[in-house]
Amino acid sequence: MPRRSTPSSTGPSTPRNRTPQPMRVRRRTVGDFVKAFFAFLALAGLVVAVPVALAMTAGWPLPTEAPSLEWLQQEITVGMFLDILTFIVWLAWAQFTACVLVEVKAALSGVGVPGRVPGAGPSQMLARQLVAALLLVGATAASFTPGLSQLGQSMEGNQKGTVAAAQQTPGLFAQQQEQAANTAAALAEQASNVAAQADDGKAAKQGDTKYYRIQPPEGRHHDSLWEVAERHLGDGRRYKEIFELNKDRVQPDGSKLTEASLIRPGWIMEMPGDAVGGELVEMPDEAPNVSPDVQQQINEYAKSGDHAQGQQGGGASEGSHVSLPEQRPAPDQPAQHQQPQQHATPAADSGHSFGLPEALLGAPLLAAGLLGALGRRRRQALWQSALGAVGGRRGMEPPTPTGDALDMQDALLVGADPEGVRLLDRSLRGLAASLAAESRPLPTVYAAWLSNGDLHLQLAQPAGKPPAPWQLGQDQTFWMLARSDAERYEDVDTAAPYPGLVSLGTMDDSRLLLNLEAVPGIVSLSGREADRAAVFASVAAELATNGWSDRMTITLVGFGQDLTPLAPNRLRHIDGIDDLIETMEAETRQRRGALGAAGHDSVLTGRTGPAQHTRWAPHLVLLAAEPSAEDAVKLAELAADASRLGIGYLAGSESGELPGAAWEMEITGEGRLLAPLLGLELDAQLLPLEQQRAVVELFVDADPERGPDGPSNTPPFLVDVSEQGRPAVYARLVGSYEIIGLETPDGERSALLHEALALLLLHREGVHPRVLSSALWPRGVTDDVREALLERLRAWLGTDPDGSARLRTDAAGRLTLAKSVVSDLDVLRSLYYEATQGKGVDNRAVRGRLLTDALVLVRGPLLAERPEGRYRWLTHEIIDAQLPLLVADIGLALSAFHLEKDRAEKAIEALGAALRTAPADERLWNELLRATHATGDPARLQALAADLVGRSGARGLPPRTEALLDELLPTWRNGVAAAG
User: Fold this and answer.
1) What are phi and psi of 755, to 5 degrees?
2) How far apart are the first and last CA of the chain?
3) Which of 337, 572, 709, 919 has the fewest CB atoms within 10 Å around its CB?
4) Tens digits of residue pLDDT in 58-86
């Protein structure tokens, strides 16, 4: 499709895609005529009288011949000064006259937004207001529009109804155009006609054939199928019926209706039989107010109906401008590839969620982003604690959430689809790498659809054949990648091409991600304040934590100050819009200059090829409160060029009429995201306030900057490490997985039972049943299968001597294990705790024995040699960071124990055992240097230093290690250089 230029928003009449609302009747008043009269006088005076007066009084200010050097050296006289002022006035008049001509042309043509006259901001605004006031009661724009004047004459009686419009726009959405010079009288007359028809009871009978002629942009807006349906069918949502009746039928101008929002004046629409109201033409030949030419067009169009329907066959069409990807199984056919988490349990489908927050259960990408960011935050806290970056020593365990925070953590675990995020990220980066290899630019992508595991990119305009394994989709503006092909992608070192993609919701079985960075202007969101806040929070949280972007700045205005803990490096909060406008004006200028200096036409160019190292990170602005009309105009001017610069704007609107908005959406109280003229009707992705607070609480509790007030070193589950504390069931998790005390289950269910037990052993605080089932069956499972597994697990674990089951359910409904079921990880934690905070504190011999026993338990990494494809839930855990730190702590403690008695070799042995599990722990290497120094063997210390330098590679030794070597072995650099 042809691409339309992005308009510049310079006033209240800037382009918008207006969400349909009840028509507001406004008749021309005496004030309108008075304004038009004075506007005419002002224009006549400024455009005609000013030059006449200048010519009569001052004359032409420029010299009649080329000035000589002597003339330039003359003293400036009063006459010469007046000539200069006169010349400036002539220039101002010429500029204003150019503004008037530009505004008149745009207003009368009815297409596009007027171009900007350079340096004429206030002058062009004044010209626009005067022209608008004059044309308000003058001739309509449609009567002057090229190609539409004949329609205006032949259908004079029908030029009465227009509301919101759908003009052709590239790719995803129709960018709706409004003009400042519009007449509201047509709206009033049309509304009166509709009301009169209704009162007279002139409704057509079911089955009658009626036709409607798309009207020119006579009112404030272009005509649209939604408003045609609203006027004549009583419900705008019935626009799909009109679309189905007319899809792919040849129009009088030779083109066809292919998308519901792309209609043109002069097209003919067959209407459903129950359509009522003025402007309808009933067949045959019942059109007394229509010219013979138009009657002939309608007759010819009527003949195409059966042919068009035959072409469509039985294929269903969405009738939506945002067409769902067609390369997907029909609803009654099984999908070849099912996206993880899409098959929720029947309990979830019926609305019952076992007490878990439902919003994140249906938001797999958002949940995966939050879960991944939370895991990174907890690992960071552990590492900073271990390295002493934060005062005080924190424990090996993150704080155990309670209440709403615990429910939210469970919801994240159940809802997250990390595999889907990984495939999306690899697919987009792989596409960017392939295009760069072919020296092709990245196409502008307005949206991405995830449909049954396949990825569909909707482009702003055709971009040729995509690189393999991508394929063309349902038309030239769709690129499609099957899930099976996406799984073959590997990680590539390239910039994230579309970091501004963010989930808005689902339509049928497809999930829509809108590319906020590519929007040609402002996106507005209307609806109740609480509903808008839930959408804004969801968008902010996903942008801040998603896994398919690199660097990014997200500015939250008027909301979201408490969201910044989710990603302090990405999220920033600004209180007022004045500060925002000042900031964005400066950044817009800076980005324009940087792009020009780099020779790029847009940020997409900077994300491919040799320039990708610059990354060109996006800046997305989320403005919750509705800006004033003046501020909205300023934002619209900034947003006019934003998509090229990598800047996106999402703004809230209470009324649904935000000046300068390019695309408009509405969130309903039922959680539906609507933009009929954009072709959207989604189940919105939301993050309500209570769930937002619970998510933030998880991140705040995991903040590494919280210091020594965090959790203690006490493990969540202490084991009796005495001889009397032998458990009934003992599982070895550190190393290869072994179970002592239970018989190995027979059949294929053995691996599933082992995995379920391992998950429960790593979470002694309890596991929600849905968390367990989502871990074992990431693609979803039914209730009966889950319950059958729990019964087998309960029977396998058996009962304690008192008859109580070893698999239990606590008061909150979570699954827990009896104290008689123990893992070696439980014993490891308990031994270290007893040695450092229990019996070993005051008894040196007991401490040494406990630490030695603990180190002997370490047989390798956690769950070594586990089956491929299983235990994927471990990616959500931080045990991979906890276990090495715990082993390092044990090794350090045992080394200190031996060095107290000058047993350096024993200390070196203990440190070596710990290093096999934690080879990257700097503390262990530094302590190994001290222990080696204690042996009194400089050659051995020099060899260890050379080994450390070799391991460090190009990064070099850490500063602390270098300082320690300078203290213990000042000549170590010479020795390393000689060895090298």
Assistant:
1) -70, -40
2) 64
3) 709
4) 766 666 666 666 665 666 677 777 777 77
